[in-house]
Amino acid sequence: MLKTATQQFCLYGGRCLSSLSPAQRIIGHEKNLWVEYSALAIRHQAVNLGQGFPDFPPPDFLKDAWSEAVNVPSAHWYTRGQGYPRLVNALSDLYSPEFGRTINPMSEIMTSVGAYESLYAALTAFTDPGDEVILIEPHFDSYSVVVEVCGGKPVYVPLKPEGDPRNANNWVLDKAEFEGAFSSKTKLLMVNTPHNPIGKLFSAEEMEFIARTCEKHNVLIISDEVYERCVFPGHEHHRIATAPGAWERTITVGSAGKSFSMTGYKLGWAIGPEELISKLQTVHQTAVYSAPTILQEVIARCVEREIELKGHEDAYHTQLPQIMRDGCNQIMAACKDAGLDVVEPFGGYFILVDTSPLGLEFDTSQTEYDIQCVHWLTEHKKLAGIPLSLFFGKNKHISEKYIRLCFAKSEGTLKTGGDIIRDIKQ
């Protein structure tokens, strides 16, 4: 008789007797917040300002690139595992001036199935059991999961408001606390700018401080820069790889989905010195081998277009920052009308909203306030967001009553969401 799943995985004396038992390293990581909160929004037919995906059409030139790419015979074949030649050459041409060095397309760039895979490959390639990985929180949820699955130990250092918390750039590291997080076991540090979920842009001074500290302790850096093309007009993106002495120890991760507003394509890349990128390639080639060829052909054409139009008003990377700024302004205006304070971002897709003025009361003895608040808003107001506490591993008290909303949405979604926010106290 076939045993039930429960019987197969039944534990006796702390040991699983079934040969079908999963590896211990994945136990405890079964839940995924994006699956949970997307399902919550769908179940209550809520306006989804939670998950970070643009729901507006991609630019016309991208659709044109598809029409052209399908007629390229090689776009339908297996391609070079480390990256489609046309794309890695285009990425080299795009990034070399931005990094202030010539980036070798064949040895210093790897394309991946989304930026997610590049982050996974980087952490997996360099994290041994017992290694410590410093995570600046709040942080994207996958960082800590991958570290723990690899047997590493996340070490959390928070960004804290210094001065007016309504300014994202006022959320900063305590330098003494940051330096105190390093030990003889520290192997890696993760940094994210523009920051998800705060919307902070790390300054050049902050990046140089982080880079100096990592150099002092001989620590590798993974820099998640997927929102690099979403820096609001009048502000500047600073790359830690360009800080003095940082290139040799830094892996920079980028995203086609975020750069061209089509997150469902799942195409990303990692950039860094050959000594580091070659290790990511080892993980990559034993997992997926290569990203889809035709996607890389399409994005190569899009990157080439951006290089040709760089600085011109028709360039998408000129238009995108204003598109994001306009969406942010609409959500900020709605929150202001509702009497809700926000943490004003300067890049990315997201804005933090302080729900304290709503006057909601929950029993927080078992579940954080912001989690219950998001569930209440989704069910009763049909507005879906994401609790900020889910981006913390240790310092959840900092999240207080903040929730994260996404403004990378269509005019229709922004208007509907804005109307709900304005009437939220009724």
Architecture overview:
It contains 14 helices and 16 strands. It has helices at residues 5-8, 33-43, 60-69, 85-99, 114-126, 142-149, 175-180, 204-216, 256-259, 274-287, 293-309, 316-337, 369-381, 411-422; strands at 11-12, 15-16, 47-48, 109-112, 132-137, 153-161, 171-173, 186-192, 220-224, 250-255, 268-271, 342-343, 350-354, 383-384, 386-387, 402-406. The protein starts with a helix and ends with a helix. β5 (132-137), α6 and β6 form a beta-alpha-beta unit. The chain is of the alpha/beta class and 426 residues long. Helix content is 38%, strand content 15%. α12 runs parallel beside α14 (411-422). The chain has an 8-stranded mixed beta sheet, with helices on both faces. It has a 4-stranded antiparallel beta sheet with strand order 12-13-16-15, with helices on one face.
Characteristics:
disordered N terminus; 426 residues; 8-stranded mixed β-sheet; alpha/beta
Per-chain topology:
Layout lengths: L4 H4 L2 E2 L2 E2 L16 H11 L3 E2 L11 H10 L15 H15 L9 E4 L1 H13 L5 E6 L4 H8 L3 E9 L9 E3 L1 H6 L5 E7 L11 H13 L3 E5 L25 E6 H4 L8 E4 L2 H14 L5 H17 L6 H22 L4 E2 L6 E5 L14 H13 L1 E2 L1 E2 L14 E5 L4 H12 L4
Parallel strand pairs: 3-14, 5-6, 5-8, 8-9, 9-10
Antiparallel strand pairs: 1-2, 4-11, 6-7, 10-11, 12-13, 13-16, 15-16
Helix pairs in contact: 3-11, 4-11, 5-6, 5-10, 12-14
Structural class: alpha/beta
Q: How much strand?
A: 15-25%
Count of β-strands = 16
Largest sheet: 8 strands, mixed
| Unreliable spans | 1-9
**What general form does the structure show?**
globular
Order of helices and strands: HEEHEHHEHEHEEHEHEEHEHHHEEHEEEH
Helix content: 25-40%
Radius of gyration: 22 Å
Report the end-to-end length measured between terminal Cα atoms: 57 Å
Side-by-side strand order of the widest sheet: 4-11-10-9-8-5-6-7
Number of helices: 14
Round the mean pLDDT to the nearest integer and report it: 94
